[in-house]
Write a structure and sequence with these properties.
Helix content: over 70%
Shape: globular
Number of helices: 13
Radius of gyration: 17 Å
Strand content: under 5%
Largest sheet: none
Order of helices and strands: HHHHHHHHHHHHH
Structural class: mainly alpha
Length: 245
């Protein structure tokens, strides 16, 4: 019962955070590890459990996506290829190696939340028309997302904001689409590699879906900036904990 309560609360809070500002993996990953799962299984199961929230975000921005003037093919290819490669690398990773890398991944995702909004204010003409570099950067972010997923949304948003001419709303819509595609293809490979615990997946996934709905309601009445502060605080705490294990 205690394990079930931990999973339900982690899914609820993780889904809520993802819906408002991101960072749900700061809750789901430690919760799954707390009840005894290996880092790789916890990472894969937590990522898949939060997938319905990504799908809901695409549904919410579907009208913006339909009106986008840009060719979305490069974004689709970068998402699918990056997510697949990241999932394969996770499958090939040794548990001890991933466990040693985990604090650094936590630190990287926390830094993304700290500097991401500042990066989105930049516009660099030098890279805007260099399509190969654009694709490779997005591929690298999606590869990271398939491997770990923490903070990938804000990384994508930051990358899109400095590399495209679209406004923040269009960039956010593309980010939502790329997030759901890379997470879906990664989840498929997690499943084929038997990295997912389905007994807990449905429990956490359903609670994350309710959390996402609750978060979307709260986002209209509460400051996103305050939630970002909470997420950064959680990221710092989790990073310190994992560095000092």
């Amino acid at each position: 019962m205690l394990d079930a309560l931990v999973i339900i609360l982690a899914g609820l809070i993780g889904g809520m955070l993802n819906s408002i500002a991101g960072g749900g993996s700061f809750i789901t990953l430690p919760a799954l590890m707390l009840i005894g799962f290996s880092p790789i299984t916890a990472n894969a199961t937590g990522t898949v459990a939060l997938l319905p929230g990504y799908v809901a975000s695409v549904w919410h921005s579907r009208h913006t996506i339909r009106k986008l003037p840009n060719n979305l093919t490069p974004y689709v290819i970068a998402s699918l290829l990056g997510g697949m490669c990241g999932a394969l690398i996770l499958n090939w990773s040794d548990e001890k190696h991933f466990d040693r890398l985990l604090p650094w991944l936590m630190l990287l995702s926390t830094l993304a939340f700290v500097i991401g909004p500042k990066i989105t204010l930049l516009k660099t003409n030098a890279i805007r028309h260099q399509y190969l570099q654009h694709f490779l950067i997005l591929f690298a972010i999606c590869l990271y997302g398939g491997y770990f997923n923490g903070g990938v949304g804000i990384m994508l948003l930051a990358g899109l904001s400095i590399m495209t001419n679209t406004d923040i709303h269009n960039s956010n819509a593309i980010k939502n689409l790329m997030s759901v595609m890379l997470t879906t293809i990664a989840s498929l490979f997690y499943w084929m590699a038997d990295l997912i615990d389905f007994n807990l997946l449905f429990m956490m996934g359903i609670s994350a879906l309710f959390g996402g709905y609750l978060g979307s309601r709260l986002s209209y009445s509460l400051s996103q900036k305050n939630f970002r502060v909470i997420i950064i605080f959680l990221g710092c705490v989790m990073t310190l904990i994992y560095f000092n294990r």
